[in-house]
């Protein structure tokens, strides 16, 4: 593809390689480990295709916690200034302004239109119809791309079937994921069907399974089924996948920055939003009455808001109330995209116990350990020692940064997730350095879970800017924090 394309942000060597591999190919997968910048590669690929006259429309699809990132961060940060473009975001229950913005996709536009949707929308008839319409209207000169493409690994799922069908109407198709195979080599089948029917050389999932899985007939009552007991011919499968994809790991990217920061956005559930608003109102009454004149008093109210975002709240009489939360789902999605060991930090005991329970059920006994105030000293030593052994099954270290954020060496992890941040700047710095210290051989990715339009955003902004929150939230600054409106 010959085009004089000017990068907005200079690509790393592996990003140039990925870009060159994809070029103007109709179907391609960017199988690049989290933190290696696959979003930028897709944006530059899209920009080059636009400037060469190949595309004028893109439908970018990502999980709920990621798709806002494309609008607010990735596209503004990386799209070349040469590319005249507009970005439209899908909202499932839009207000009048959002409805008007989505409808504007039907209006003529001389530049590149980028429509961003959450993958969950394609489980609904409304989302499927929108995708089908865009395929018919723009697909001949359009690109469809799925970020975190393991969200369509289940070939039987409604959204997977819908997206495979919609993708047939687009000239260009792209997949982005850090790990295309999360549980089984068979995960790759549906993803490649999205890129093109029969791309791996099989006309059905069962023919594909027959080649790469070892099965055994089982009987359960009157029901007989084939149980997978192993896999075969995996070198052949890898060779086939390599023909239409580019794979890179962080350890192979010698020029990457040592630390990479990103966010995963989590929408509040209706129950959380209701409780968040109630606490806000109570706090503002106290603020106006002069009952909150010190940083500790204000931070107490912020702490209550933060608890609600984690799905729980301790009442004045000591009772623990819980609410439905999507934060745990976001964490699970992140870890499914990651191959190696990871650290998950939360300031709340309730979170640590719930996360440990969820990960143990999801990834197996011995996969997860909790390190917080209740953890006995002898157990703490075993946890750190086992976590630091590359082959040990302990993959997930779930800790309180005030307890475990100092002194420990946890360099087997190159992913750190902040489920609920501590307000203390020193605690944040120290907890980041548990993975990023002598002994770390890879670059480290830090992900903050953020509920948009809440104090989450201000907390993360302050901590990343190395600002002490205790000194910041006073006076009118506190009013601004307490009156933020959560994204619905």
Could you describe the largest sheet, including whether it forms a barrel? 7 strands, parallel
How many helix segments?
19
Helix content: 40-55%
Cα Rg: 24 Å
- Principal-axis shape equals globular
Distance between the termini: 42 Å
Determine the mean pLDDT: 90
Strand share of the residues? 15-25%
What's the β-strand tally?
Answer: 17
What are the low-pLDDT stretches, counting only 5+ consecutive residues below 50?
Answer: none
Quickly give the structural class: alpha/beta
The spatial strand order of the largest sheet comes to 3-4-2-5-6-1-9
What secondary-structure arrangement, pairings included, does this model have?
Layout: H1 13-22, E1 27-32, H2 38-51, E2 57-62, H3 64-78, E3 85-89, H4 96-103, E4 112-118, H5 125-138, E5 142-147, H6 158-167, E6 172-177, H7 188-195, H8 205-212, E7 213-220, E8 223-231, H9 234-242, E9 245-248, E10 259-265, H10 270-288, H11 295-309, E11 312-314, E12 320-322, H12 327-336, E13 341-346, H13 349-363, E14 368-371, H14 377-387, E15 396-399, H15 401-404, E16 413-420, H16 425-432, E17 444-450, H17 455-464, H18 469-472, H19 475-482
Parallel strand pairs: 1-6, 1-9, 2-4, 2-5, 3-4, 5-6, 10-17, 13-15, 13-16, 14-15, 16-17
Antiparallel strand pairs: 7-8, 11-12
Helix pairs in contact: 1-2, 2-3, 5-6, 6-7, 10-11
């Amino acid at each position: 593809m010959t085009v004089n394309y000017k990068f907005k942000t200079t690509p790393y060597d592996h990003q140039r390689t990925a870009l060159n591999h994809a070029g103007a190919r109709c179907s391609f997968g960017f199988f690049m480990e989290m933190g290696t910048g696959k979003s930028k590669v897709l944006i530059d690929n899209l920009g080059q295709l636009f400037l060469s006259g190949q595309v004028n429309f893109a439908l970018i699809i990502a999980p709920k916690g990621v798709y806002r990132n494309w609008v607010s961060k990735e596209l503004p940060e990386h799209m070349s200034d040469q590319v005249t473009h507009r970005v439209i975001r899908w909202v499932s229950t839009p207000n009048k302004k959002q409805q008007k913005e989505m409808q504007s996709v039907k209006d003529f536009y001389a530049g590149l239109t980028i429509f961003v949707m959450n993958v969950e929308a394609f489980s609904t008839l409304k989302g499927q119809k929108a995708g089908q319409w865009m395929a018919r209207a723009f697909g001949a000169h359009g690109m469809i791309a799925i970020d975190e493409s393991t969200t369509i690994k289940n070939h039987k799922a409604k959204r997977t079937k819908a997206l495979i069908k919609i993708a047939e109407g687009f000239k260009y198709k792209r997949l982005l994921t850090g790990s295309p195979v999360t549980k089984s080599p068979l995960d790759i089948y549906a993803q490649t069907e999205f890129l093109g029917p029969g791309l791996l050389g099989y006309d059905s999932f069962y023919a594909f399974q027959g080649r790469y899985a070892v099965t055994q007939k089982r009987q359960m009552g009157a029901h007989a089924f084939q149980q997978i007991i192993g896999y075969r011919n995996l070198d052949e499968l890898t060779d086939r996948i390599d023909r239409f994809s580019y794979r890179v790991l962080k350890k192979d990217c010698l020029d990457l920055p040592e630390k990479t920061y990103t966010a995963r956005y989590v929408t509040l559930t209706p129950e959380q939003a209701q409780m968040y608003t109630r606490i806000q109102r109570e706090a503002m009454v106290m603020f106006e009455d002069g009952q909150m004149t010190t940083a500790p008093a204000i931070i107490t109210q912020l702490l209550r808001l933060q608890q609600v975002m984690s799905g729980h709240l301790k009442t004045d009489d000591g009772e623990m109330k819980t609410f439905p939360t999507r934060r745990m789902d976001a964490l699970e999605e992140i870890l499914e995209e990651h191959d190696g060991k990871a650290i998950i930090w939360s300031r709340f005991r309730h979170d640590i116990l719930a996360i440990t329970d969820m990960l143990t059920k999801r990834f197996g006994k011995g996969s997860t350990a909790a390190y917080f105030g209740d953890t006995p000293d002898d157990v703490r030593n075993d946890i750190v020692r086992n976590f630091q052994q590359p082959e040990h099954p302990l993959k997930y270290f779930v800790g309180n940064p005030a307890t475990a954020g100092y002194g420990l060496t946890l360099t087997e992890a190159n992913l750190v997730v902040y489920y609920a941040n501590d307000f203390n700047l020193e605690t944040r710095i120290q907890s980041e350095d548990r993975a990023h210290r002598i002994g770390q051989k890879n670059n480290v990715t830090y992900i903050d879970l953020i509920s948009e339009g809440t104090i989450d955003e201000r907390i993360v902004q302050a901590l990343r800017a190395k600002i002490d929150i205790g000194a910041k939230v006073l006076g009118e600054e506190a009013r601004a924090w307490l009156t933020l409106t959560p994204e619905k």
